[in-house]
Amino acid sequence: MSDNLGFYLDQSVCTGCKACQIACKDKHDLPVGVTWRRVVEYTGGTWQQDGDTMVPNVFSYYTSIACNHCEDPICVAVCPTTAMHKREDGTVAVDPDKCVGCRYCEWACPYSAPQYNPELGHMTKCDLCADYRSEGKNPACVEACPSRALDWGPIDELRAKYGTVDAVEPLPDPSITRPHLVITPHRDAQPTGSGTGEIANPTEI
Amino acid sequence: MNVHELPLILFTVLAQMSVGAFVALGVVQVVGRLRYGKAAVDEIADPSLYAIGPVLVLGLMASMLHLGNPFNALNTFRHLDSSWLSREIVFGIAFSGLGFLFAALQFLRWGSPALRQALAALTAVVGLGLVWVMSMVYASLPTVPAWNTWATPAQFFLTTFLLGALAVGAAFMGVIMWRRQGLARRFAWVERLAPVRWLLSLRRPEEPPPEAAAAGDAGRRELVEASLRWVATASILLLGVQLVVIVLQQRDLAADPGMPSASVAAYGTAWFVARLVLLVLGAGLLGLTLYRMVADHRSALLVATVATAAFATVLASEIIGRSLFYDSMARIGM
Ligand code: SF4
Ligand code: SF4
Asked: What's the ipTM?
């Protein structure tokens, strides 16, 4: 696993436009209901007293997540068939010839990355655009982002360049799977576990 | 009700019921044999044993429906060192294989009684292992807090013993009624069918000459009555434990700040009330009625009706309960 590939997201510039999600869907010809990259909106707020008035103090920000090709992928650990496996370059992929479509990985992954394709009868997920990469191109989502919020590469390089933040709401405690993910947090980003807001678009992820 | 996960609901409940019934039959065998003799116990317990087979097969078939691509099912053994799901499948196959082997030997009366008894004990242990492994498939997921608790194995074992005991009670009364109605004679033609005749011809004669006559009607009746009293007592006790577990589990669920609200909401439904009502009705009220009726030597038809009603009511409650268990599935994260 020389490369240990992963993703970077700049939350502070992500506008929630979902161009990455659509580029991914288009590139991989995904059917309705299968979304390898998802953009989640996290919203919350409180009231603040300002003199005699109560003023709203609200926040809302977006997090674009595909698969984090985790260091300790729980999807791989629970898979009964070993169809879900880690590859040489550190990416996590499904072997369709082994998968029984039990969907156990879908229950386990706290990022909703493995997605079941009922037409194929097996699990599918982000492979970090293995074919594009082999041609020296960037993954479709990274290329499509108008805000240039996404990047990808060996996780050590991403961490050297962008830092080590990966624990912001609504993402889970990173100690569970140790995601290959670096985030530049939004100015209102809430730390993981604070539960100060909620996911505003649960049906879209 | 969670229709979506129906295959898993049926599989887990039916498999647990099979394990429970097998264990309950084992207890009747071991305890009953001392007082009523082997022949009397076999006469009642064997038909009940054969009834477990179809239930288990139904459960296993249901589990296959859950798979998107059953043709790859052989791959599911590949990850035994890491995946509880792999282990569940191995234990499921081991329990069914051993169970069928034991039922076949018992039917054909092959092998010494000691050997068969050892096989039955092994089957029971593997069955209890299956229930444990089955519960760990859910309880081991750190990403689903509603499942990731001690209450998951506790509930699975309670389902096992409660349904197992009540199923055995209902089956015993079924055997009695079957004899009463002279159905055995009406279905005598079955024994003349070629494959059945062949099977029966493989059967070894009873080694100690049949002492069934010695046990007689009175002995058989006493045995069934004792078993039913035991079943009724077990169901009332298990109901008590079940209620305590449910209360503690709901308390933990509500107290955990990291619990997804969807998990809590799943239990705030009329279905949950229905499950509790059916549970108390079936295991409690009908269990008590069953006990009283047996103690009062009421007619077999009446006892059979109550035993069956108690079993059916608790089965309905457990199916709803399992459905809620799947409804409560909500992941942390996104
Ligand atoms: S994000 Fe989910 S699917 Fe991707 S590697 Fe991590 S645990 Fe597996
Ligand atoms: S759905 Fe496929 S990849 Fe996922 S756990 Fe089951 S066998 Fe493994």
From this structure: 0.89
Rg (CA), chain B: 21
pLDDT digit string, tens, across residues B41-98? 888 888 888 888 888 888 888 888 888 888 888 888 889 999 999 999 999 999 999 9
Q: Which atom of ligand 1 is nearest to the CA of A92?
A: 5
- State the DSSP code for B285: I
Q: Say how far apart CA A28 and CA A19 lie, in whole Å.
A: 14
Query: In chain A, what are the domains?
Result: 5-70+127-204 (3.30.70.20)
Please state, in angstroms and as integers, the Cα–Cα distance from residue B122 to each residue in A30, B38, B100, B153, following that order: 49, 20, 13, 21
Is the CB of A109 within 6 Å of ligand 1?
A: yes
- Model-level pTM? 0.91
A171 touching B (Cβ < 8 Å): yes
Instruction: Report CB contact under 8 Å: A81, B75.
Output: yes
Please work out whether the CB of residue A113 comes within 6 Å of at least one atom of ligand 1.
Answer: yes
Nearest Cα neighbor of B238 from B273, B270, B274, B282 is: B282
Decide if B239 contacts B283 (C-beta within 8 A). Answer: yes
